[in-house]
Design a protein that fits this description.
Blueprint lengths: L11 E3 L2 H13 L3 H20 L6 E6 L4 E8 L2 E8 L4 E9 L6
Parallel strand pairs: 1-5
Antiparallel strand pairs: 2-3, 3-4, 4-5
Helix pairs in contact: 1-2
Length: 105
């Protein structure tokens, strides 16, 4: 886990190979270089927020009581990301990524 900065708790952000491949596919699919850059920039912003405050980022969707996780969704144009935040440990798991326009997954 990354070291805390200025005493703040940092969360580990995990994504599967399938999610990483979907991000690469979305970038390849972007019609312009600016579109590809926007996707990369949005993803970096999302990960930065998830490392700092995933419990207040985006909107809650539902809770997985057996796993003690809350599933949330967030938007940083042009990306929509669904993620789960562990209630017992500083862990975040990405569940899905899509373009805001609805293209993609």
């Amino acid at each position: 886990m990354p070291a805390p900065h200025n005493g703040e708790r940092r969360y580990e952000v995990h994504l599967s190979g399938a999610i990483a491949e979907e991000l690469r596919r979305l970038q390849r699919q972007a019609s312009q270089t600016e579109g590809s850059r926007a996707i990369a920039s949005a993803f970096r912003q999302i990960v930065a927020r998830l490392e700092r405050d995933p419990n207040t980022f985006g909107e809650p969707l539902y809770r997985l009581p057996g796993l003690r996780m809350q599933v949330r969704t967030c938007i940083v144009r042009p990306l929509v990301v669904d993620f789960a935040v562990c209630e017992d440990h500083p862990l975040v798991f990405l569940k899905g990524v899509a373009l805001l326009s609805g293209r993609g997954t």
